[in-house]
Amino acid sequence: MSDVKFSKEHEWITLEGDVATIGITKHATEMLGDIVFAELPEKGSNVEKDGTAGVVESTKAASDVYTPVSGEVVDTNQAIVDDPSKINEDPEGSAWFFKLKMKDQSEMDSLMNKEEYDKFAKESAS
Amino acid sequence: MEIKKTSLNKLHQINKAKFVEFAGYEMPIQYSKGIIEEHKFTRLHSGIFDVSHMGQLFIYGNESLTEELEKIFPLDLKNLKQNSSKYSFLMNEDAGIYDDLIITKIEEGFLIILNAACKDKDFEILSNLLGSKFKMNLDNNRSLIAIQGPKSVEILNSIINGIDQLNFMTGNWFDSDNQKLFITRSGYTGEDGFEISISNDKAEKFVENLMEKGAQLIGLGARDTLRLEAGLCLYGHELDINKTPVEANLRWAISKSRLSNGGFIGSKKIMDQMRDGSSQLRVGIKPEGRLIAREKTKIFDNEDKQIGEITSGTFGPSVKGPIAMGYVDKEFSKVDTKIFLEVRGKKHPANICALPFYKKNYVKGLN
Q: Please, which residues bridge with residue A65 across strands?
């Protein structure tokens, strides 16, 4: 499995073969607060890099979830739809959002590594 | 304009508040534990709310003041006992609501608690209506602190002995730390609780004292989920200048004795609507599933005709599901009517339901 990469919209992504797993970062969940609703893309649908691919809602507001890469949705995590509080508990582990079969793996190149993302998150929060 | 701060601002910071601007004030939306934990703590234990941004308007006068105020408010103020409170409205001639408020008869006149965003305009309207006959003071030297939840009576009574004798919607002056506090048994969470009017310089120490006894600070975020579960209106959402108390399903707040002769601002419209009904009504709404329908979500019938709009919607932590309030055409206002909510371009089923979503726990009377 590849190293974790991060987007400016606060998604994380890992790649295994040509299948990417995508979720939202711990930093994003801290900004959102208690998550009470999650909507995921439909299996079999195609999503485009930087397009919306879901929604999370906290007690306060709704936020779009973007996909950092393009591809076909091959799996979604029903567990976080049934119990959205799991997203706050383990955002960068068991609470992944969806898996994509990637078309163009070079889309990973422009994403940030952990160190770059932590710096970005710290700066965008202040 | 510079953002205003309440006398508890430093204490909010120490307790790691996330701040938002609300009605020109820097107010805590939540603390480190988050909205859901704060909400649950209030329902189970005791939450402290800084509501110092709200207006505390003292109007001084005797019988002639009571008469003048009866020309404004739809209340039987002549028979309102000293230290008793009523929920009411400041309205225009069309019964549109400028503000909703709590008015308490005190020895020297009346104390009116006003919404933060409305208080300056309310003061102007009331000044114009009352002229210069009565002394009015929108008191910026006092803070307002609410303590809400089942343990609040015990905690507050351990600091100010005797507050446990107050009935719901009554108040009194109490002495503490060489100063006078005006305390009412009231609140806006659906829980038993109190609101304490205290001078600014004593507020921080007083709240620290409550915290030492086990109460915790709660932000505006949880205040909103608590009041929504309790089916209570929030000005600017359920209530505004284009809504009347009858449309808002608040008929109970209009004194029956004032309906035969009217004589208050907006009375003609109120009496017409009380007799004929209004075309729209405020209702409780439960979306099916987990979907949250926020303010301004459009409401449809099963034939795709728009029949109303959501005014507040969130996830109710005690209800453990999504809840909302909104206005619908009268014929769709019955409990269990199926409706559809348009969220992100799709229509989702929901049902009209009875209010409150969460059954309240007020202490009514002690005798």
A: A54
**Shortest Cα distance from A26 to chain B (angstroms)?**
15
Contact A33 B294 (CB under 8 A): no
Q: DSSP letter string over A47-98? A: E-TTSEEEEEEESS-EEEEE-SS-EEEEEE-HHHHH-THHHHHSTTTTT--E
| pTM across the whole model | 0.92
| Fold adopted by B1-231 | Gyrase A; domain 2 (3.30.1360)
From chain B, pick out residues whose CB is under 8 angstroms from the CB of A81.
Answer: 290
Topology of domain B279-353, CATH: Elongation Factor Tu (Ef-tu); domain 3 (2.40.30)
The answer to whether residue A53 is domain-embedded is yes
Q: Which of B359, B365, B340, B342 is nearest to B350 (CA)?
A: B340
CA distance B296 to chain A (A): 13
CATH number for the domain that contains residue A40: 2.40.50.100
pLDDT score for B1: 77
Closest-CA distance, B345 to chain A, in angstroms, reads 13
Is A33 among the domain residues? yes
pLDDT tens for B126-142 read 999 999 999 999 999 99
Below-50 pLDDT ranges, chain A: none
Residue B248 confidence class, pLDDT cut points 50, 70, 90? very high
> Within an 8 Å CB–CB cutoff, is residue B290 touching chain A?
yes
The shortest CB-CB distance from A59 to any of B35, B290, B291 is to B35
